[in-house]
Amino acid sequence: MLCHWVRLAAVLWVAAQVFGQSDVPIRARSYRNIAPSTGAAIPIGRRVEVSVPLGLPPVRFPEDNPPTAETIALGRKLFFDGILSRDGKVSCASCHDPQVAFSDPRTVSIGVDGLAGTRQGMVIVNATHSFAQFWDGRALTLEQQAEGPVQNPIEMAHSLAGVERKLAADARYVELFGEAFSPGRITFEMVAKSLATYERMLVSGNSAFDRYYYGGDKTAMNESAIRGLKFFLDNTLDGPNCVSCHRIEPAYATFTEERFHNTGVAVDPETLNIRDAGRLAVTGLMKDRGAFKVPTLRNIALTAPYMHNGSMKTLEEAVDFYFQGGRPNPQLSGVMPHAPLHNIPLAGQPQAKADLVEFMKALTGEMPELASPPGNETGHD
Ligand code: HEC
Ligand code: HEC
Q1: Fewest 10 Å CB contacts: which of 226, 279, 302, 346?
Q2: Distance (Å, whole) CA 196 – CA 263
Q3: Can you name the CATH fold of 2-20+29-203?
Q4: ∠282-132-155 over CA atoms, to 5°?
Q5: Which helix (H) or strand (E) holds 200?
Q6: How far apart are the CA of 234 and the centre of ligand 2, in A?
Q7: Per-residue pLDDT tens digits for 327-365
């Protein structure tokens, strides 16, 4: 645990040196530089080409962790295996279910010994297109992210050294790690790199929206979803302003962006206290109080409940929340829409809300081929 905090502190210190303490958003282009490679574990297997589904940008792989058939297969096996947890029962997939775009249908995640977390499990499909990981962005790469759940006492409650020992005692894993990296000691760096590569393969696009917007198929979305898209794109404070945070670019759409925002979800509606400091815990800056990562909206119809605390059960509830301008608090984002959204006459608002929900339903994409547990083809039970 201590070791984890020291490491986290070191990452934050480096981040602070690189980005300074300004309001400037962290740019995705620069984050690779601050996760120094130890150069110890380099994949040696067969390189694979990764194709990009309609509507998504290319997947960027770090130089020291290119995709290989071996690391992908290994990452997939690890992801679905309880071996990474202390009691051997909790796997990554326990909280990131491939049936629902690798999200968690529970309000907050439940880990080893049935301990409940405080935050809602996140969607891992398309996580590679987020510029930082976790609701508060505390990990900058998927490689760094993997340490979090393994060590978290209320998730997998294990130690990195403990995981290394368990894997080293398993002949099949020794063989697979040897093929993927090189024969010898299995290190957690190898585990993290394999998991990260598998996760980078989990991209999902070619939704009805993609076929309509990028593929030129005007029949791909229904009339209501097309109207919803128009409302979504209205980027004024008297309109829904969704696209200002959930971005749609000319050539692709990630529906996220490189900033954290306080929308007021963390405000307790009764006491008006902020219940989760969010990004403040990472930066120490008051302006980041209650601010969270902008989650992608791709596959959103599959991933209820919503928000960092799982406090909203339906997309209708989420849209209502925005039409009320979020929940007031001192750090409320300046880009939240202003109620009562003067651009849409009050009488038309129920239909506009329904249209926005219909639009979000058009964001369900094709699931990637690897989005299932490995079969028995590995010869390991
Ligand atoms: C006990 C439930 C649980 C387990 C087990 C678990 N996770 Fe998570 N995962 C979560 C929760 C909850 C979050 C959000 C936590 C936060 O932001 O503080 C999350 C966030 C993530 C994210 C960030 C996604 C994003 O868009 O920012 C990734 C990636 C991820 N998990 C991968 C993994 C991997 C890989 C494993 C296995 C090594 C794993 N998780 C195991 C519950 C879990
Ligand atoms: C100021 C930036 C901002 C604007 C504007 C905005 N969002 Fe969000 N959105 C966020 C953030 C940040 C979160 C996560 C908030 C949290 O959990 O505390 C979020 C969460 C969501 C979620 C839940 C996602 C999940 O995986 O749980 C939905 C759905 C959503 N937004 C839809 C919309 C729609 C529709 C609009 C326009 C009406 C919109 N958003 C406008 C920043 C924004």
Answers
A1: 346
A2: 30
A3: Cytochrome Bc1 Complex; Chain D, domain 2 (1.10.760)
A4: 70
A5: helix 188-201
A6: 15
A7: 999 999 999 999 999 999 999 999 999 999 999 999 999
Task: Assess whether pLDDT exceeds 60 at residue 33.
Answer: no
pLDDT of residue 3: 46
On the question of a common fold for 2-20+29-203 and 208-361, the answer reads: yes
Q: Fill in the amino acid letter for 80.
A: F
Q: What is the spatial distance between Cα 231 and Cα 233, in angstroms, rounded to a whole number?
A: 5
What does CATH list as the number for 208-361?
1.10.760.10
Probe target for ligand 2 pocket from 136, 242, 244, with the most ligand atoms within 8 Å of CB:
242
Cβ(308)–Cβ(119) under 8 Å? yes
Contact 195, 146 (CB under 8 A): yes
Which residue's structure tokens are 């800056």? 285
Task: Place 375 in a pLDDT band, splitting at 50, 70 and 90.
Answer: confident
**What crossing angle do the helices spanning 160-168 and 188-201 adopt, rounded to 10°?**
90
Residue 348 phi/psi, 5-degree rounding, is: -90, -5
CB within 8 Å of 303: residues ≥ 6 apart: 100, 101, 103, 123
Predicted TM-score (pTM) of this structure: 0.90
Name the token pair of 49: 């080409």
Centre of ligand 1 from the C-alpha of residue 324, in Å: 30
What is the distance between the alpha carbons of residues 157 and 151, in angstroms, rounded to a whole number?
Answer: 5
Q: Where are the domains of the chain?
A: 2-20+29-203, 208-361
Residue 135 CA: nearest ligand 2 atom is 17
Q: Which atom of ligand 1 is nearest to the CA of 152?
A: 1
**CA–CA dist 128, 195 (Å, integer):** 12
Whose CA is closest to atom 36 on ligand 2?
Answer: 242
